[in-house]
Amino acid sequence: MVAIIVMEGEALTIRFPADLLVKANKIKEGSESLNDLVVEALEREVSRRRGWVLHQRIIARSETVKAKTGIQPASTDLIRSLKEDEGRRD
After folding, report:
1. Calpha distance 57→71 (Å, rounded)
2. Phi/psi at 16 (5° precision)
3. Cβ(25)–Cβ(34) below 8 Å
4. How far is CA 37 from CA 4, 26, 29, 55, 87, in A?
5. Residue 63: how many CB atoms within 10 A of its CB?
6. 43-86 pLDDT per residue, tens
7. Which of 5, 30, 49, 66 could disulfide-link to 12, CB 3.0 to 4.6 Å?
């Protein structure tokens, strides 16, 4: 199946595998158009990929900090004690 989508004066051709198109048509809700389904799926995928890029940046930054300062002790016990008012200096 080939879909031609016109956006802002430009046409975009998308080729869907026939079995994927059948699956998509089965999961559409009520009067939802195939366009709505594709747009929603693409928005989720773009968001997922952006999240993945940010996740990779966080990992890289963590590795940079670890290389400079070494492994830091876990702060869980400190946070717990502060929540329980131990060692607070108000």
Report:
1. 18
2. -100, 135
3. yes
4. 15, 11, 9, 27, 55
5. 10
6. 999 999 999 999 999 999 999 999 999 988 888 888 888 888 76
7. 5
